[in-house]
Amino acid sequence: MKSMKRILLIDSDAVTGELTKKFLKNFNYNVDLVTTGKMALDLINQSHYDLVLSDTEVNGLGGFDVLKIMRKCFIDVPFAFFTVNDDVSTGIEAESLGAVKVISKRTDYINLPHILDNYFYRSHNMVA
């Protein structure tokens, strides 16, 4: 059995966030949900997370802002975007900031647990 991974989900749409949280819980993920970038940064400073999963469009500080602040403060937590803004420019900006993945809410939602499983399996089994 896999160890329970802890994810911080940032989504300003509380309904989508709660549905995603419950969905991932069914696949043995422990998910904390916040609706603002500031709340996310507060939690990141208080707790350990295996991954931050953020929408690009978030109230106040957006997902890109949160990632930039994390990197400037040397907070080394893997960061992925889970967004409807899944175009090429989003992918390029995400990659340039060190995001590990851009996952489309439109086309990949149903596969999200499997995408995360695959990411964690690969990151755990990488040869140093």
Task: Summarize the structure in words.
The chain is an alpha/beta fold and 128 residues long. The protein has one domain (5-124): Response regulator (Rossmann fold, 3-Layer(aba) Sandwich). It contains six helices and five strands, in the order βαβαβαβαβαα. Strands 2-1-3-4-5 form a five-stranded parallel beta sheet, with helices on both faces. β3, α3 and β4 (79-83) form a beta-alpha-beta unit. α2 packs parallel to α3. The two termini are 24 Å apart.
Write the layout of secondary structure elements.
Layout: E1 5-10, H1 14-25, E2 29-34, H2 37-46, E3 51-54, H3 63-72, E4 79-83, H4 88-96, E5 101-104, H5 105-108, H6 112-124
Helix pairs in contact: 2-3
Summed up:
This protein is 45% helix and 20% strand. The chain has helices spanning 14-25, 37-46, 63-72, 88-96, 105-108, 112-124, and strands at 5-10, 29-34, 51-54, 79-83, 101-104. It starts with a strand and ends with a helix.
Widest sheet, order of strands = 2-1-3-4-5
Percent range for β-strand residues? 15-25%
Helix content: 40-55%
Q: Provide the number of structural domains.
A: 1
CATH superfamily: Response regulator
**Overall average pLDDT:** 91
Q: CATH top level?
A: Alpha Beta
- The CATH architecture comes to 3-Layer(aba) Sandwich
Work out the radius of gyration.
14 Å
Quaternary state of the chains: single chain
What are the segments in which pLDDT stays under 50 over at least 5 consecutive residues? Answer: none
Element order: H for helix, E for strand: EHEHEHEHEHH
Number of helices: 6
**Main β sheet profile:** 5 strands, parallel
Separation, N- and C-terminal Cα atoms: 24 Å
Total beta-strand segments: 5
- Secondary-structure-based class equals alpha/beta
